[in-house]
Amino acid sequence: MKNSIQTSLILFLLLFAGCDSFLDTVPDNRTELDSREKISQLLTSAYPDASYALTANAMADGISFRSGLSPRAGYTEYQLNEDAYCWRDSPSTNGDAPSGFWNACYSAIAAANHALAAMDAAPNQEQYRYQRSEALLCRAFAHFLLVNLYAKTYDPDRFNSAPGIPYVDKPETKVLVPYNRSTVEYVYARIEEDIEEALKNLPTESLFKVSAYHFTDKSALTFASRFYLYKGDYQKVIELTSRIVPVPVRAANGNVPATDPANVWAATYFAAFKKWPSNISEIGTQFRMASNKHNFLLRETYSRLSRTWTCQYGHTYATLPSSTTRNITGGYWPFASFYNTNFRDAYYLGKFLEYFFYTSSNTGYPMIMFPFIRAEEALLNRIEAEIHLSQFDRAINDLNVYFRQRSGKEAANISSDYDETAMLLTQTKINTYWTASLADNFLTQYNAFGAAAWDDDKMALMLTLLDVKNAEYAQEGFRWFDVLRYNIPVYHATMSGQVNLLQPDDPRRMWQIPEDAVNRGLEPNPRN
Known about the structure:
Layout: H1 2-15, H2 21-24, H3 36-43, H4 53-59, E1 64-65, H5 76-85, H6 98-121, H7 129-150, H8 184-198, H9 217-231, H10 234-241, H11 261-269, H12 280-287, E2 295-302, E3 313-314, E4 338-339, E5 347-348, E6 355-358, E7 364-374, H13 376-388, H14 392-406, H15 427-433, H16 442-446, H17 456-472, H18 479-485, E8 490-493, E9 499-502, H19 515-519
Antiparallel strand pairs: 1-3, 2-7, 4-5, 6-7, 8-9
């Protein structure tokens, strides 16, 4: 935590009067957090400026060795891609590497803590109620990402006594602050405290010039629903998401009408792949736009993610959902995939468009806009909770709402229309689709959530939901969280043809605690 502690110390020295002689007098050029405007400015730094996607993508299933490509020495993204694919601890410290993301999260936490401390010291607490909620959500969100990536996965059916990550809730005033990892259970409890406090005064979109860059009611409720989904409080997930997404009502024909409020909501808030021109530049531009309503929480991040589509390990035509591959409805996905003959077998969806931030005439940083929370997640979280609660009819209604935006009747045509009758999902259709694997799949083999005892209806619906999420979030790194939660084994083939297996109990599924943090006393994750 070296970088985050130093960042926190610098912020403290600059922003607060404190307890030693240096801090006794406030110089004229020192900024004090004594107004809503200054605290708001600080809170823009309370979000991670790095993403987990590059590493998480390469570690997950559905990724394979791509022939015709070879490692390129000296290219950071190629080395990170190979390290992650081989489940090796990367020595890199840039933002795409585990250690870089760790530092980015703790720097965000430090900013949130300084803002909270300043608000606690302010004479008029009421004027800061929305900013307090934003700061608490930022702190909870960063800790949530950290505990799910660097610690053992939370199990709703057990006491989670495995080492977690440091939960930092105060500004550091010294460089050498002792930390311990506490337990996963403790970290989840602290995250929940922050979320529940924040939910009392959720900031609305109207409070911000660009709402997608901040926690608002929509992004906060969606994040909270994700937390309670991982925690296993499924009824709470439904309550939270239903404050965002209307509950659909099935018509006499078995489908949810296009005019139903849930379908109107999805047509308004889903990423509009069907409406975007099918070229790589336009898709990348539209996907990252803060004005597009699917971006509930968007962050500018240092990342080489958009360059990894030419790396040796990634999606091939067979594993990437696109407008030429069918989904469970019998229709086609509305995702345009791209292929370059110079990079054989390398396919890409074009979601991320890099822009280069120049620090001089010929040097700088690759940047992308990364969607930490998208609107689609609210509906998908509700479906998952409904399946866990055996509310199958409600889950199927929601799945039909989803596929009205994500299925078309013509191959290679992303704007192809949804077929009201042919694409209707029913329990029978879903079970038939999964017939060959209902009795033998990763859920029955590894028994996540007691799945070995599920009936066919529940099994088929959960396999559908996980397949949907895998497609929706392709190349965003989100699949890795489901790999962890559902004990999904990962098979990776090497250049020589050897197939390696990452089992659900393999400690390499936990990202390694950075060396700097270990040197300062934190226990590293095991590696054998």
